[in-house]
Amino acid sequence: MSFDRLIHKIVETQNPTVAGLDPKLEYIPNYILEKNFKEYGCNLRGASRAILEYNEALIDALCDIVPAVKPQCAYYEMFSYYGMKTLCKTIEYTKSKGMYVIIDGKRNDIGTTMEAYAVAHLGATKVLDDEMEAFGGDALTVNGYLGTDGIAPLIPYCNERDKGIFVLCKTSNKSSGELQDKLVDGKPVYRIMGDMCENWGKAAMGSLGYSAVGAVVGATYPEQLAELRSAMPHTFFLVPGYGAQGGGAKDVMGAFDAKGLGAIVNSSRGILCAWQKEGCDERDFAQAARREALRMKQDITQHFENGIHL
């Protein structure tokens, strides 16, 4: 099962973190921008090529210490089809380095439309007698608030193609409680969604105790994070909100099980902008990202008395 592969990568690197590849042009060193604008034009194509060069350097610097990356689709879509090509190339390059890829698309629809999303991001598109992967992610973030109709089309891809999904459950944003904390028959909506994730996962269980139906649970709500870990023993968590959004290492501890497993914590801006925060030479941006990734790893794993183990 897909999350079994992710867990093995986490154990191998002793690092339960994922680098969010959410690039903005202001994050990219000027020398990369100038080079690509000169070659391809100061336009959407040139910007997309600069992002790809930036991403590949980051992946090279992180691939032996960080188990996974999480590109957010919106940061690529804004550059038109050039940006989507960069997303494809980024995923391809990441996988060539042995890293796990979580596509952050938060897709949400029903029936054949949701199946089309599954084909695009987790499956293979059939063209006459051939099948080929469009994006080739290992996992996809999805919105479960259309209910089972929006999740059921994804389950066959999890089982047959060794893929995973992360369903929005208790998100890290400030206004999440406007809906997710509302009580229905005395239970918060996020708990109801958590129960649904556990139930959906029964049809796609892995060998290490977690199903292919994961959940997005934010570090900015540590009490709810711990509550959901207890209530969702078979659901693997993707944990945003560490760092730039205010969550710290102690806040994410409730996401993990007794073996130091059960969750992967995301950092995007903290890693992408590490060179700017350090004030180092812009040509050292990738190594600055590596230093930040190692700092984050130490910050979190120092709280695991027995390390991370199967």
UniProtKB/TrEMBL annotation:
This is Orotidine 5'-phosphate decarboxylase. The active site is at 106 (proton donor). It is an enzyme of class 4 (lyase). It catalyses: orotidine 5'-phosphate + H(+) = UMP + CO2. One of its GO terms (biological process) is 'de novo' pyrimidine nucleobase biosynthetic process. Keywords: Decarboxylase, Lyase, Pyrimidine biosynthesis. The gene is pyrF. Belongs to the OMP decarboxylase family. Type 2 subfamily. It comes from the Bacteria. The lineage of its organism: Bacteria, Bacillati, Bacillota, Clostridia, Eubacteriales. The keyword Lyase applies. Residues 16-289 form the Orotidine 5'-phosphate decarboxylase domain. GO terms for molecular function: orotidine-5'-phosphate decarboxylase activity. It comes from Hydrogenoanaerobacterium saccharovorans.
